[in-house]
Amino acid sequence: MKKILALVIALALCLGCASAFAEKVGVSMPTQDLQRWVQDGENMQAELEKNGYEVKLTYAANVVATQIADLENMITDGCDVLVIASIDGGSLGTVLQSAADKGIKVIAYDRLIMKTPNVDYYATFDNYKVGQIQANFIIEKLDLENTDKVYRMEVFGGSPDDNNAYFFYNGAMDALKPYIDAGKLVIPSGEVEMEKVAILGWGTPDAQKRMDDLLAKQYSDGTFPDVVLSPNDSLAMGIANALEAAGCTAENWPIITGQDCDKANMKNILLGKQSMSVFKDTRTLAAQVVEMVNAILLGDEVPVNDEKTYDNEVKVVPSFLCEPVFADISNYKELLIDSGYYTVEEITPEEAPAA
Ligand code: BGC
Fold first, then answer.
1. CATH hierarchy code of domain 127-279+327-347
2. What's the CA gap between 129 and 296, in Å, rounded?
């Protein structure tokens, strides 16, 4: 009995020590407004805790000053590694200098941190490929290779303070350019350049506002575009809302692209109000980041698979690029339900699909 008691005490002491000395990882996410970041945060926390780390997880309500304050607290709190999905990739230079001064390693999560030498690694999805997947969907759906028809397209871009937005835009536009040059895709608004089509902050209401304006200016005869290139789901939602408000119906609903497979957008895909999305399995990204954290803290070689693409204007940041996957009504069950990412209920629309 005494022996057992001693063993229990020893075990308790040991666990106590382990948690007192557990290495700390700070995870700074941009916002809880978008479903994907909530999922990213939850997955990161679960994976890191499974690996024995103490985790400090914060969301910054898309306010840069809040994210900087979050990071300052993590540094003061003794975090050993910081994992950061930045709001504005170019605004973290000063706080990351303080991290570097304390020998804290930094992993940029999903979005590259710009204009600082103090970002050590980058884990993301292949962002150029995301744009390519969206463009290839449009090319195939409209059979642009073989058609003689002319289709009207409007273009949306992501937030200009997010480096990813340019990769999505370039991936899509490089693939669509031959068909624009050939006159098979025309852009009635003439708004094509990133400066004209970008939506600062990735907000649904701002995308809706721009689509409202485009419809009022370019489509006042009651017609609608045939295609709207949207880089992600939050913008696709705003675009769909504007079309609906303008009286667009299933017969003339355009092709709309997206990214993230957010629950609300999966419902729209099932209702025929969005054509596709790009699935970036946050579980894969979280697992990859945990491997990076483990390697950093053990002093092992950190796994990367790209050392040339992501230049943050000070250095090329060693990166690990995960594979984004095409998702639409034909494969969503296998991708999202069978894999346990969502339950059927979570993405079942309340209303019936349009006839
Ligand atoms: C992410 C996208 C996301 C967008 C808006 C991008 O940096 O890669 O997945 O839709 O930010 O939050």
1. 3.40.50.2300
2. 28
